[in-house]
Amino acid sequence: MDSGVVHSHVDDGGVYRTPVARRSPRRLSRAVAAVAAGTALLGAGVVACGSNEPKVAIPEGIPPGTGSPTPPIDINAPGRSADQLADWAAGLSDDIGIGTTALEAYGYAAAVMAETLPGCGIGWTTLAGIGSVESRHGTYDGSSVDAFGQVAPIIRGIPLDGGPGVAEIPDTDGGAMDGDPVHDRAMGPMQFIPETWLKWGVDANGDGRVDPDNIDDAALTAARYLCARGGDLTSAAGWQQALMAYNLSGDYLALVRDRASAYSVGVRPD
């Protein structure tokens, strides 16, 4: 069995360390219950300071909304199939603060799952919420996403060496994928560890490679993993189970939920 996806992730202040192994079950259950009850919320229906315009109400609860529907596409179209979503992504990109290529990747991954595993019901907003927390949609620390979904410079997490708030995972790939021959590191825009990537990774952009540093491949791999772990992601229980498999942290679940919920109503997260 794989060890999960990510054990550290990047956020606006740098590397955000999730206390995976040290979080007590009682504390974790309280955090998750708080989110399920809708207590970890963004401001809803509040008048913006110094403005007569009210803020858009951010939906409460789990799962977050699935957002603007993607148009029908041929998921098996030659080349980068996600390019079919260019107009859809361009219409959302500025409002929600996600680059068009990354947004196409999230939308395509959700479209693939809707056609191949309709019982899952994963929304592109969930993938975007994860991508935001993990790597700012592939732009962490000066990285950028090119038109083919490739992220450069590559993004690597801290060594998973058992330090404060960090799980300990000895090297599983000889350093071939993550560059570390001693401990595993999370890789790419969705921050997979090598062990998990080798099991779940998929080529989503038709270039013949299964690459954790390509946001198309990473987004579809994340979608496959989440659907397998959570089952029905349109249910609160299924969505919560999927996110906790991705990262065993109530704080992480709440952060992804908040960002995904903001995307679902077409606004940037606070």
TrEMBL record:
Signal peptide: none annotated. GO terms for molecular function: peptidoglycan lytic transglycosylase activity. Residues 186-230 form the Transglycosylase SLT domain. SUPFAM superfamilies: Lysozyme-like. GO terms for biological process: peptidoglycan catabolic process. InterPro entries: Lysozyme-like_dom_sf, MltB-like, SLT_2. This is Murein transglycosylase. It comes from Rhodococcus qingshengii.
